[in-house]
Design a protein that fits this description.
single chain; about 260 residues; Immunoglobulin-like; 2 domains; 7 strands
């Protein structure tokens, strides 16, 4: 296809005008391959970069952003393009939920925000251990003040977790992900299953403060009144960071 566009442009009396008329990625690439210079080359590159950026935004894929970034490394919006690419790489790694995917994210996104890198390291720790068993999510509407006669103004979630490995867990953070009708995440909240304190230093129950020993199970019991209005009353509960007894605390395993 590219060769065809190239041949047609060479045969035209005004290759720039023909490329501009078609205004497609293929035609601009073919025009630039003819070796233009001056203002027409600059305009052609601007047109091509706009089309490639539009394609990347429409496809929302890392691969499409890589094409733009590689083709136009000095683009005026290169910083923003790299930031958008990093966000997409993070989403792809999170969806894949594999140790390899998270390691790839860290390898390719050294300039990613600290919060993203912390979560990646936490997820790698969970995947490397590979012995945290997550049970079925049980959910129901609840009264957040625990008043039996009060209005059902929130949702309660209960999930059984088991430490099926041979290490004592003294910190395990859990993320509750709200999904829409398409199964896409539209919101999330975190609360530890095992920790000495909650996010921001919030006190936790005596049960939560106890380490989770090998073979032991514990129920993650969490309630919230902040479920997104567009969620499909479907959730996913995921362990996102772990620390073992005797292991120094690290940034990726702290309550967030």
């Amino acid at each position: 296809m590219y060769a065809l566009f190239f041949s047609l442009l060479l045969a035209c009396s005004d290759p720039f005008a023909e490329a501009e008329k078609a205004n497609k990625i293929e035609t601009w690439e073919a025009y630039l391959a003819t070796g233009p210079d001056g203002s027409e080359k600059m305009l052609a590159e601007q047109k091509l970069s706009m089309l490639l950026i539009d394609k990347a935004k429409a496809e929302q894929s890392v691969a499409a952003y890589d094409v733009v970034i590689k083709r136009f490394p000095k683009h005026k919006d290169i910083k923003l393009l790299k930031e958008e690419r990093t966000k997409l790489a993070y989403i792809e790694a999170d969806a894949a939920a594999t140790m390899e995917g998270w390691k790839k994210f860290l390898d390719e996104n050294a300039d990613a925000p600290k919060l993203m890198k912390d979560k990646a390291r936490g997820a790698i720790g969970v995947a490397e251990y590979g012995k945290i068993v997550v049970g079925e999510v049980k959910m129901e509407q609840v009264n957040l003040a625990e008043d039996p006669k009060g209005p059902k103004d929130g949702w309660g979630f209960k999930v059984d977790f088991k430490n099926d490995g041979d290490k004592v867990i003294d910190y395990l953070n859990v993320e509750l992900r709200f999904l829409d009708a398409k199964g896409q995440q539209i919101g999330a909240e975190k609360w530890p299953l095992v920790a000495q304190q909650g996010p921001g230093g919030v006190p936790v129950s005596e049960e939560t403060a106890k380490p989770l020993k090998p073979g032991e199970s514990r129920v993650w019991d969490y309630s919230t009144g902040n479920a997104p209005t567009t969620w499909a009353q479907t959730v996913k509960v995921v362990p996102v960071a772990v620390r073992f007894a005797g292991t120094p605390a690290n940034e990726g395993a702290q309550p967030k």
